[in-house]
Amino acid sequence: MSIQTRNNVHIAGAGPATVIFTHGFGCDQSMWRSLAHVFASRYRIITYDLVGSGESDRLAYDRSKYASLHGYAQDLIEIADAYADGPVMLVGHSVGAMIGLLATIDAPGKFTAQVMVGPSPSFINDGDYTGGFTRDELDELVALMDSNFVDWSNYLAPAIMGAPDRPELGRELARSFRSNDPSIARQFARATFYADHRADLPKSTVPALILQSSNDLIAPRAVGDYMLRHLPNATLEIVDNVGHCPHVSAPSTVGQAIHGFIGRAA
Description:
CATH architecture: 3-Layer(aba) Sandwich
Number of helices: 11
Helix content: 40-55%
């Protein structure tokens, strides 16, 4: 099986550097549609679907490999090896940002910059650390997912998207959630929401831009502040946005921030 088929890899644009976009949980590469084509005028652009999502080859899904985010990071490194030209910069949303972070650790020197949109190293509150959820709250969400995947998608997607003035975006995200294989989505949810990668933050020395919404149910401001303190070479920018998907609901603002950052890193 080719990497292209496995991850439904698409390449656009041309330039002296490559930008790879990694989507978040329950999504696919189409969530980058408002941004990726803008960057194609200056960079080689790679978009792809995480295995088990979108139009990836679901026969490639290995429950052992993808039980943690490291399996997805391995795929990202392979995509960079196969298709990137020049310096390689990563743009990841939510869990996609953490997959990128792990890739920068596993393949030191391969990536020159990372943009992290709404990242979180851990979603669970722990002592002085505010992740946004108690363990019981996450258990309840996962239990709903296990019992009724459609209801879970319809309930959670609008809350994640936010953008109260554009309810169609929440409906779009719900459709994206429902398009996933429920058994794969359940395992990916556990690999995403129960993971704790706080100890990995100091290991990634690649320059990083953390982009966080001003009002985010999934990754509150305290998470961005924590990452800024523990991630070397990091910068934090707050996007005036309600919701966890500013690249969808506020693409112009996010695009300007990314352009400025990767323009300096290229």
